[in-house]
């Protein structure tokens, strides 16, 4: 049975930057994304939560086309996501992505990690790219680590480098897929603080996270997914204090009570 999601968010995005319209995706028999409609405004911070296997990562991965879709459309800043080729590479560069695992190039220095995409994809000259990289590394608090290799950094430092690397491409939107869940507890806050600052600076962000404190303080809207659908969306206060759907109530009772 198809059920319209409970929507108590801010209504249709005023100035939509990312728009998913009736997006469907299957993995074989599994209908992993089901009629996903989601419009994200410029400068908006959307936190996506939901049970394991509900399709949160797949949703992120379709937005920068690491996964294809079966039907529906995705537009970024008014332009449909291209299927492939140079156009796709350029559009993908508009979408910064930070994963659970740090995905830095192990054999390159921190500085080189943050410089590479700028010279290769954005065609900046090396000096300009390095200057940008150093500014961004300072901004996320790891400027002193620029000449080290990833393995010489803590997990929290590596994740902040990954954020700087994504920012170096000057993305229009940043996607975070559980960026703190592989970190030791004492390193979680340093990464969340960088993300909080980004949000305050007006970056458009989609964040999959189990950090409900972050969701409460940084999100403009919480999107709750279950079984491949958006079941409920609302401003954080409303969502956490008064979830409407049974699925969301059940999920919150499990994660908030231990
Ligand atoms: N490449 C793949 N091939 C087949 N099935 C997949 C693939 N990737 C994901 N799935 C399945 O799709 C469903 C949704 O996966 P997804 O990773 O998007 O969930 P999630 O909400 O991010 O879960 P988690 O909270 O555990 O990260 C799961 O049942 C998963 O097993
Ligand atoms: Mg996931």
TrEMBL record:
Name assigned to this protein: ABC-type polar-amino-acid transporter
Domain annotation ABC transporter: ranges: 18-252
Principal location listed in the UniProt entry: membrane
Superkingdom assignment: Bacteria
Membrane topology summary: Peripheral membrane protein
Record localization: Cell membrane
Lineage, uppermost ranks: Bacteria, Bacillati, Actinomycetota, Actinomycetes, Kitasatosporales
One GO cellular component term: plasma membrane
Gene3D superfamilies: P-loop containing nucleotide triphosphate hydrolases
